[in-house]
Amino acid sequence: MTETTIDAALRVEQDHLVASRIALGHMRERTAAITDNAGDELTAWALGRAKALRLADLADRPDTPLFFGRLHLTDEDFHIGRRHVVDQSGNPMVLDWRAPISRSFYQASVRQPMGVTRRRRFGFDGGALTSFEDEKLDAGDELGESSEILAREIERPRVGPMRDIVATIQPEQDDLVRSPLDTTICVQGAPGTGKTAVGLHRAAYLLYAYREQLRRNGVLIVGPNESFMSYIQNVLPTLGEVDVTQLTVHDLVDTIPIRGVDAPETAALKHDERMARVLHRAVWSHVTMPAESLMIPDGGWRWRLGEEYLHRAVAEAQAENLPYLTGRERVRAQIVAGVRRQAEIRSGESPSEAWGRKLGRSKLVTTFLDRYWPALNPKKLVTRLFTDDVFRAEACEGVLTDEERDLLASRTRQPRLTEADTFLIDEVEGLLERPTGFGHVVIDEAQDLSAMQCRAIARRSQHGSLTVLGDLAQGTSPWTATAWQHSLSHLGKPDGEVVALTTGFRVPADVIALANRLLPQLNVDVPAARSLRTDGLLELLPTTDLLGTIAETVASARRFEGSIAVIAADSEADMLREHLGEDDRLSIVAAGQAKGLEFDHVIVAEPSDIVAAETFGLRRLYVVLTRAVSRLSVVHAKPLPEPLTDNASTVS
Ligand SMILES: Nc1ncnc2c1ncn2[C@@H]1O[C@H](COP(=O)(O)OP(=O)(O)OP(=O)(O)O)[C@@H](O)[C@H]1O
C-alpha cells in the first residue's frame, strides 16, 4: 500500500471507531431506559442488579481501544474488540473477542487460514487508533511473533496495575483461554509467559461462553497476597467482567482472628495432607452407637423406638458418607419417620408436616442426638485437638508419629490460633457441611499452596473446574509443590491436564539467560523460558558501597520511562525504603513480596542475602531476577551466588 492509501485506510478505520463508540453510547442509553421496578421486591432487585452489571459491561473506556483487529473472511468482515457493539438496527459493528468467530483472529495461520483471507491488527495510543498491520493469509503472508504491534505491546513501559492482553493473545495461550468449562487445566509456565494473563482471560472467556451456568455459582480468582490481588484486580473489569470474586487464599477461609505463630515444623505439619485424616477421625469419633431405646411422649401417646431401630438409623446415616451435620439431620429424620409410622398404624392417618417438625426439634430428640451424634463447633474441636491429650492421641493414632502428635500439643488451655489453624478449622467446617461451590476457580501461584490450602479450594469447587497456574521453579513456601500431580490431587482434580508455556513476554533474553543459570540448582523438572524480546539491558554491578551504588542506579534508571523497583532481602527492605524513599515510579520491594509483579527496571540489592535468607533462597532469587521488563541491575558488595558467577562481567 502506498502512503496515501494507508492514510486513507487508517482514516476509514478511525471513522469506524468513532461510529462504534457512538453506537455503544446508544446501547448504554437503551439499557439505562429499561425499567427495573417491575414485579415484587426480589424481582426488582434482580433486574436492578442485572441492569447495573450490564451498564458496567457497556462502559466506554476512552483510554482503551474498543476494537483491536479486523478479520476479512471470504465474503464478510468483522472488527474484533472487547465487547459486542451493534448499531441501532442490530447490525454488528464490533464482535466480542470471545465469540466463536473471533477465535480465528487468534488462531488463523497460512497453514490453517480458517476462512480468513486477511487479518488486520491495530496499533493504539491510549484509545486512539494510530496504525495497522495486515497479514494476507491467502497470499502466504504471516507475521506471527515478528508482529511489530505485538513487539510494541510487550516492550511498552509498565505503569500501574496489570493490563489485559486481549489484542495480542498468542495461539498457544488462546488454546488455554478457550478450553471448555468442564476441563481443569494446570499451566506450568516459566516466568513472564503469561500464566496470570491466561488465567484471567480464561475467566472472562468462560463468563461469556457459559454465562447462564456461571451466573448461578460464579467464578473465583485466588491469589497469594494483597499486593498481587490489587495488581491484577483491574484486568477483569476492563474485559467487561465485574461480577467475579477475587480473594487471597487466606481471605478464603478467614473467619477467626489470627493471634499466634507456629514454629516452622508445626506449621509444616498442620499444612500436611495427613491432618485431613486426623481431623476426619476427630470429627467422626463423636458419633457413637445408641445403647438405649427412646420413649417419646406425643399428646396422649408414648411412642417407643427400640435400640435396634436407632442403631440402624445411626449406622445407615454414617455409611452414607454425608457431611457430618447432614448425617445428624438424617438420624433426626429417621426418628421422626419411626414415630410417624407408629402413629399411622395406630390412627390410620398420617400426622402433618408441622407435627413432624415439632417432634424432630423436641428437647428429647435433640438430647438424644447430642448424646450420639452431637453438633460440633469447628474452632472448639480444633482447640480440643491441641489441648486434650487423650482426644489428640486417638485422632493421631497410626496417622502421625508420636513426635508429630506432640508438635500439635498446646501448653495453654486457650491456644492462640495461627494461620495454619484457619485451614484446619476450615477443613472441619467442610466435614460438617459442604460450602457453596464456585463454577470455576482460577488459582495463581499455585505452586506455593499446601495440601490443606488446596483442599480448602477443592471444597469450593467440587462441582466446578479449575485453572491452576504456577511455576514449580518459583515455589518458595515450606510446602511448595514438587509435582503438579500432587497439587491437582489435593485440589480434587487428579485428571487435570498439565500444559507448559515457555515463550516469555516480559523478561528480555539476556535477563532470562542469567536467571536460567539458576534452574539446574532449583531441583525441579521444568522447561526453561525463551524470550520473545531481544532488547533490554542487564548489568552486574560489583561495589564496595552498596547503598551509594543503589542510589546512583536508581537515579540513572529515572532517565527511562516506566516503573523502577529495588528488590532486597526482606530484612533489608525497610532500611532501603527509609534511605531511598518511594514515589509514583520507585518501589522498594521485599523479595518475599515480589512474586507475580513486574517493573520496567529492577535493581536487585545483594543477591547473596536474598539466597541466604530462606530455605528456597535460590528460587526466591530466580523470582526476583525475572521481575524485570526492560532493565535489570544486580548490585552486590558480596560475591554473587555461585550459579551467577560464570562469566560474570558487566553485560549490556
Ligand atoms: N500475548 C501477550 N501479548 C502481550 N503481552 C503479553 C502476552 N502474554 C503475556 N504478556 C505480558 O507479559 C507479562 C507477563 O505476564 P504474566 O504476568 O501473566 O506472566 P506469568 O507467567 O504469570 O509470570 P510470572 O510467573 O513471572 O509471574 C505481562 O506484562 C503480560 O501483560
UniProtKB/TrEMBL annotation:
Residues 168-508 form the UvrD-like helicase ATP-binding domain. PROSITE patterns: UVRD_HELICASE_ATP_BIND. ATP binds at residues 189-196. It comes from the Bacteria. GO terms for cellular component: cytosol. GO terms for biological process: recombinational repair. The keyword Transferase does not apply. Keywords: ATP-binding, Helicase, Hydrolase, Nucleotide-binding. The keyword DNA-binding does not apply. This is DNA helicase IV. It comes from Stackebrandtia endophytica. GO terms for molecular function: 3'-5' DNA helicase activity; ATP binding; DNA binding; hydrolase activity.
